[in-house]
Amino acid sequence: MRNRWIVLAAFAACTSSPLAAQRTADQSRLSLGIAAGTTVGRSLWTVSGQPITDGAFIADTMELSRRIRGSLAVVFHGTYFPGEHVGFTGEAMLLGLGFEDDCRLTFASGSLRNSQVCTSIRSNSSPASAVSLSVGMMYRVWSRQVLSPYARIHGGLVVSQHSSVLTNGFFQTFGEDTKVTVFADPSNREVTPVLGLGFGFTAGLGHGYQLRWEARDNITGVQRVTGTTSGAPNLEPPHKISYQHIFSVTFGFDVVLERRRGRRY
Fold first, then answer.
1. Cα–Cα distance measured from residue 34 to residue 172, given in angstroms and rounded to the nearest whole number
2. What is the pLDDT at residue 92?
3. Mean pLDDT confidence for 93-99
4. DSSP secondary structure letter of residue 235
5. 43-44-50-55 Cα dihedral, nearest 10 degrees
6. Which of 70, 125, 165, 241 has the smallest CB count inside 10 Å?
7. CA distances from 27 to 6, 86, 113, 121, 181 (A)
8. Higher pLDDT, 38 or 259
9. What phi-psi label fits residue 21: left (phi over 0), alpha (psi between -120 and 50 degrees) or beta?
């Protein structure tokens, strides 16, 4: 009788150990979600001493500046965790990359036309968006709890149809606006790298759903003007890619698909 109980105990230990290990390790989770929030604006470039022509001769100089305006951010993402902590993510992010301009005449000859051009540039505010496509990794803690903090890193490309170099102003002739191109850009499309560093947390809403809050630094390549031109016909200024820290805060909703023992998603 005693030997029988020893054999049964050994058999139970052998069979229960793999099941327990499987139950602990089998924490695969696939989540699909959408989030929305806002980005924080920042200065992009400033150029001083830019000549502006009045008719056939150079009359004045001006200081031009451009900043990235705060805007809406929308994120569509998918995340897969094969285990407790490390996961993989891919996303498409609609990132606000609109601009606000400023202008002041640093040497004024009294030209009404040049004054109008500078004033019109000062009122420029162009909402625009870029699409960021990226993949990366996430690390989470307390994955079995209602609140689960995480950190992420991801990289990819930003595609924008709105030039950060092109600068136009206007003056009036006979009651109609006439465009003056101060800085030209032959290509309005910009494709630049992006690196994202973020942290946040998820909050479970019961089986299969969760809320997500995230703060992120979107380190985005944007063309920045670095110097002046001599005026028409040389209108394309010197410029280069500058990596800007565009901070965003988003709040969203995820659908979570869990793989349980004996089941697929």
1. 46
2. 95
3. 87
4. -
5. -100
6. 125
7. 34, 11, 68, 56, 58
8. 38
9. alpha
Q: How many CA atoms lie within 13 A of 147 on its CB side?
A: 4
What 8-state DSSP symbol labels residue 265?
Answer: -
**Hey, is 6 helix, strand or coil?**
helix
What pLDDT is attached to residue 216?
95
Residues present in the chain in total: 265
Residue 260 pLDDT grade (very low, low, confident, very high; cuts 50, 70, 90): low
- In the block, which residue shows the tokens 């809406």? 72
Alpha-carbon distance values, 6 to 15, 16, 17, 19, 124 (Å): 14, 15, 17, 21, 85
Element at 17 (helix H, strand E): helix 2-25
Q: Tokens for 53?
A: 């022509």
Using one digit for the tens of pLDDT, what is the confidence trace for 203-243? 988 778 899 999 999 999 899 999 999 876 678 999 999 99
Q: Per DSSP, which regions of the chain are E strands? A: 29-39, 42-54, 57-68, 72-81, 86-96, 99-107, 125-126, 129-140, 147-160, 167-173, 176-183, 190-204, 209-225, 239-258
Residue 91 gets which letter from DSSP? E
pLDDT band at 77 (very low <50, low <70, confident <90, very high): very high
Any residues with CB less than 8 A from the CB of 153 and at least 6 apart, and which?
136, 137, 195, 196, 197, 198
- Alpha-carbon gap, residue 95 to 214, rounded angstroms: 15
In angstroms, the first-to-last Cα distance of the chain is 46
